[in-house]
Amino acid sequence: MSPRLTRRARRSTLALLTGAALATLLSVTSATAAPLAGTTRGGVGTAAVADVWMKDHPDDVGLQPHSLNPIWESPDIKVCHTAVECAVSQNPIAGVRNYLFIKFRNNGPYAGPVVESGVIEVFRTPSSGGSAWPDDWVQIGWMAVPSYPGVTTVTIPWDDVPGPGHFCLVARWVSPNDPMTFQSPDIGVTVRNNNNIAWRNVDSVPLVAGGLVQTRPYTIGNALTRATRNSLVFSEVGAPLRTAGGRLVADLGPALYERWLAGGKAGKGIRDVGRNQIEIVDPAQASLDNLTLNPKEKLTLQLNFSATTVTKEPIAVRVTQIGPNSLGQERADLGGVRYDVTVGQRAG
Q1: Dihedral (CA of 306, 311, 312, 317) sign
Q2: What are the tens digits of pLDDT across the range 21-62?
Q3: Burial classification of residue 291, based on how many CB atoms lie within 10 Å of its CB (0-12 exposed, 13-18 middle, 19 or more buried)
Q4: pTM score, two decimals?
Q5: DSSP class of residue 15?
Q6: All domains of the chain in start order, with CATH
Q7: Which strands, in side-by-side order, build the sheet including 277-280?
């Protein structure tokens, strides 16, 4: 662990794990728990090589790298409002204690399932693509824990959640016998090439039919040291947004709107509605293209969701930043967010 992250970890310890609260704030469950007797690490005795991993995708089997997409919807990271694990990850509530449930496995393809001691660390950044690792990420907390053969779940409290409560999350396993072997300033490249780090960018958008617009921030970034041209690509999962009479408008703000104009107003499935706003007419296959970002630059836009019709069908819109990465690929997935949309009846 780098000195900077170590200092953060120590501060997190003082903030989260002081005194008798340790026993009640942190919990560990394991499907195949076993005693630590006979296991050694840190140069004492014979340390076995372990392969602890988390899923980037439901079909992930621990290979590094892999070609599964998207890699930023990890099923092994979950946010819940209580210390009892929820069925589906929830948006954190700002200003109060939430709980992080992190699932990891000690049965990876590169070593035998041996008991290993390590640390689970969790980080956050605003909902975005193109975030730089580790510079754009703030540590939420960490927990020292043994990893037994099988599947283990840890629970970490998350206090003082800043508003408005829309974040990307990263969890990673850190241990001397199972280190991250590939480092990149791109979080996506780092995650794809290390099976002991996982990334989750999922946001809920609860709408009321005919009700107020729900706004979600989205940041695009350039982790490289040269200017890059990027696209924002929209796609749908499940039922189309139009099933609920839905509308999606991206407010680019003055700076990003000027970049879009300078790039020739490039894109498809969109309509310029003025005042820096672009309507996403076809969320299933829309894009905003030729968006130039300066080195290490980040710009934030607002996504405005609304709907007119109640529906129980699952609706999700993915927004993905596509652009150059540190491996020299010019059209790489730099990260995105899946917005799970629900539309309910107006009260009264």
Answers
A1: negative
A2: 333 334 555 443 333 333 333 333 344 489 999 999 999 999
A3: buried
A4: 0.86
A5: H
A6: 3-200 (2.60.40.10), 205-344 (2.60.40)
A7: 214-221, 298-306, 247-251, 277-280, 270-274
